[in-house]
Amino acid sequence: MKVNVNEDACIGCGACAAICPDVFEINDEGLSTTIVDTVSEDLKSDVQEAIESCPTGAIAEK
Ligand code: SF4
Question: For the chain, what is the mean pLDDT?
Answer without folding.
Answer: 97
